[in-house]
Each structure stands twice: as C-alpha cells, then as structure tokens.
Write a structure and sequence with these properties.
It is built from 14 helices and 13 strands. The chain has 362 residues and is of the alpha/beta class. It binds uridine-diphosphate-N-acetylglucosamine (UD1). The site of uridine-diphosphate-N-acetylglucosamine (UD1) has 19 residues, from helix 1, helix 5 and helix 10.
C-alpha cells in the first residue's frame, strides 16, 4: 500500500538459474514461496545434470514447476561447460529481463548465471552466499568466491557465512536469511518419517546400516585415492548403501576399481524423499557432499566426512560431523553412536525461503 490508496504494484520477476542436483533441492522451497507471494518466476535449467535420477526426479518429487528454459549443456570440462552456459544465457536474459537473477550454491551453473547477468547489468542475488572451504583446489570454492564478489545481493545461510562476507568487504550486500535446505529437509522428514526406508537390495532397513556418497573430483579422479576410499568403505562392519553419483561410477570403471566389496551395496542415487528416509533410519553417513553432511546433522545422524575441511563448520560441534580425509579409523567411526549433546540450530528455523522472498520483493 502506498499512502492512503491501495496500489497494485507490478509483480517482481525473478529468474532462477539451476543445473545440478543440490540446486534443485534449494529451488523447491524457494519456488513454492515465490508462488505463494505472487512473484513471477522463470526457471532456467542449464542441463549440467541431465540423468533422470539426478534431475527430473527432483522436479517431480519436490513439486517444482517444469523449467521454462532448458539449455541442455551437459557434461564437459569446466571451461567448456561454464562457457557454453554463459554463451547461452545472453538470449535468455534478454528475453526475460528479470528484476533479479537468482543463482544457487557453488556449481558451474551458479558462476555462469552470475557472469551472464552481471555483464548485461542485471541485478544478481546469490543464495547460499558466504560459504567458504578455503581450499582453492575445489572448483566449488572458485565458483563461490567469484559469484559472491560479482553479485549485488548476498543471501547468507548462517552467521559464519555472514562473517566470511564481512571479512571480504561484502557486508553491505549481505543479508542473513537462513538455510533453505533446512526448510525442505524438515518438510520432507515429516512427510516420510512414518514410511519404510527403501534401501539397495541386500540391506535390512531394520538393522544398522550406513549411507555413503562420494563424488568430489579430489576423491574420485586419482585412482590411488579412489581405491583407498573403496577399501575403507569395505572395512565398515555394517552394511553400506553406496548411492553412486555418475562421476563415481564412471571413474571407478575407468580405473578398474570394484566398489561392491565387503558389505558395500552399490545403487543409483536416491530421490530426495527416499534419501531423507534412508538417512533417518541409518546408523551413520559417510560422504564428501556438502548438503548431505548438513542433512545428517539436521536429521540427528552422525556423519563422517571424507574431506580435509567443510563449509558447514557448525556440524563439527560435539562431533556430530568428523573430518576424516586420511580415512584412518573410518571403519570404526562410520557407525559410531550419536553424541549425547543437544544439537544447536545454526541453520535456521525452516522458514528461510520466506525471508528470501521478503528481501527480493522489498
Ligand atoms: C556438481 C557440482 C558440485 C555439486 C555436485 C552435486 C560443479 C563444479 N560441481 O559436481 O558442486 O556438489 O554437482 O552432484 O559444478 N554426470 C552424469 N549424469 C549427470 C550428471 C553428471 O553422468 O546427470 C557425470 C558426467 O560424467 C560428468 C560427471 O558426472 O562429467 C561430473 O558432473 P559435473 O556436472 O561436472 O560435476 P559434479 O561432480 O556432478
């Protein structure tokens, strides 16, 4: 309302750029909140992830509207993948002229969407801004830092992220909104908790089991490293549901490494609701995924992270999450008892997407 008279303001138009699995999870609560608030929302899917299980399943299970634009970029080297998206985005942005281009997380799709919009002088908002691993070997770290410094509005999930942005001179552009992955994780948990866990054949959902995922280049691309990880997983004394990202399968095949050893059962990636249910019923999670570390924490399951550092440092509190890059003791740690301490709530209250809408429409 302006002055005394009700005025119908033109709806804000937001163009979301997504392309990889974790971005579809983040898009779900945001697109629902946009619909609720009457925000005009254009969804652009870059095609970075294209397998049905890595992409379509998330749209159907999480009730996300079909993308308005699909760039169909697919897999390639970082430069080619990012550059192809960047080239394709000009026409899309020219056609839609959004009030905000909204980019998510830290993938090559995030960086391409940001650069394309910035170069056309269109405002960019980065959701999940301010996360840092301080590991410059990670492509995700380049993507985050470059995106934060190019974007106009930085939507941070945590106080720690706000601190990183302030130290880089970006405090003026930063807003603390909370973590939208918490919104979706809690909603899905409540919907699936009463149902049975669907696990790979050979794993008893009522017995102790571990959920494992490995996909980062640092863990998959060097044959000696991948072999050491496969051997460590095989030493875990309880059954392991290894939910294999296409990169893991491809690299294991290239290097002639057998993943299904010991009690390890290899299966395709699970749809998001099934993943949440599998983690809820598990004794532990072993992963190198950022999102899964946090989901384990939110669901009250101990996590062992096969990396030297984490962006989600709050999960390390009281040993809910342990970093075991050298794999030592992984077998004993994977299904360790949950810490007795109460977990803090550093990731917000499950209403982050509403705050995103409030900031973008202010
Ligand atoms: C990407 C993101 C990462 C995110 C992850 C989630 C970057 C740099 N990395 O990593 O931040 O955590 O997604 O999954 O953007 N592939 C398929 N089918 C697919 C997708 C990928 O077969 O649907 C295979 C291809 O062989 C491809 C490889 O997986 O070369 C890696 O895919 P890519 O998109 O380059 O990166 P991710 O490892 O998935």
């Amino acid at each position: 309302m302006t002055g005394r008279w009700p005025v119908r303001l033109p709806p804000v138009k937001v163009l979301s750029v997504v392309g990889a699995r974790p971005q579809f999870v983040k898009l779900a609560p945001v697109s629902a909140a946009f619909a609720q608030a009457g925000v005009q929302h254009v969804i652009v899917h870059t095609g970075q992830h294209y397998d049905a299980l890595m992409s379509d399943a998330f749209f159907s299970d999480l009730l996300i509207p079909d993308p308005d634009v699909h760039l169909g970029v697919g897999s390639a080297s970082h430069g080619v993948q990012t550059g192809t998206m960047l080239a394709a985005m000009d026409a899309v942005l020219d056609e839609h002229r959004p009030d905000w281009t909204l980019v998510y997380g830290d993938t090559n799709s995030t960086l391409a969407g940001t650069l394309a919009a910035v170069k056309l002088h269109l405002p960019v908002a980065h959701l999940e801004a301010g996360l840092r691993s301080f590991n410059r070997r990670m492509p995700e770290e380049h993507n985050r830092v470059l995106t934060d410094h190019a974007a106009d509005l930085l939507l941070a999930p945590t106080q720690v992220a706000m601190g990183h942005l302030a130290r880089e001179g970006l405090a003026d552009r930063a807003r603390l909104v909370g973590d939208v992955m918490t919104d979706v994780c809690y909603l899905v948990r409540d919907a699936v908790a009463a149902g049975p866990a669907e696990l790979p054949a050979g794993i008893d959902p009522d017995g102790p089991y571990v959920v494992a995922t490995i996909h980062r280049a640092d863990n998959t691309d060097d044959p000696a490293r991948l072999e050491a990880i496969a051997a460590a997983l095989a030493n875990i004394p309880v059954p392991v549901a290894l939910l294999a990202h296409p990169r893991l399968r491809a690299k294991a095949a290239d290097h002639g490494i057998e993943l299904a050893r010991g009690k390890v059962q290899v299966s395709d990636p699970l749809p998001y609701p099934a993943l949440v249910r599998a983690v809820l019923g598990s004794a532990g999670v072993v992963t190198d995924s950022g999102g899964l570390q946090k989901e384990a924490f939110l669901l009250g399951v101990p996590c062992t992270t096969v990396r030297t550092e984490t962006e989600w440092t709050e999960t390390l509190e009281d040993g809910w999450n342990l970093l075991v890059a050298d794999l030592r003791g992984l077998d004993a740690l994977a299904a360790r008892p949950a810490p007795k301490s109460e977990r803090a709530h550093p990731y917000g209250d499950g209403h982050a997407a509403e705050r995103v809408v409030a900031v973008l429409t202010a």
